[in-house]
Backbone:
């Protein structure tokens, strides 16, 4: 899915909205983690949830670009090695 989707782009307002959703989710799912992140925010002086979104999107984009590059250079889906390895081991007698 991540490889087939276009690059991520959104407005600053949407980014803040998603960050707020992550904050609410952390408070509901894991209050101790939320308290830890609040402490980080106080110490660092910036929105930790926005930083986590930045990191997540950055890594997804790196993965997407690497997969596209591999497809272009390799001419395939990039999954052939694992499937051919399975078939060669199962066909050996």
Residues:
């Amino acid at each position: 899915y991540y490889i087939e989707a276009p690059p991520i782009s959104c407005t600053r307002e949407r980014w803040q909205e998603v960050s707020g959703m992550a904050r609410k989710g952390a408070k509901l799912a894991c209050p101790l983690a939320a308290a830890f992140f609040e402490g980080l925010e106080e110490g660092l002086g910036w929105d930790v949830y926005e930083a986590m979104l930045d990191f997540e999107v950055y890594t997804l984009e790196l993965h997407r670009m690497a997969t596209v590059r591999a497809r272009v250079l390799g001419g395939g889906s990039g999954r052939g090695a694992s499937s051919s390895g399975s078939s060669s081991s199962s066909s050996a007698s």
Notes: Residues 80-93 have pLDDT under 50 and may be disordered. The helical segments are 12-29, 31-44, 48-74, 80-91. The first helix runs from residue 12 to 29.
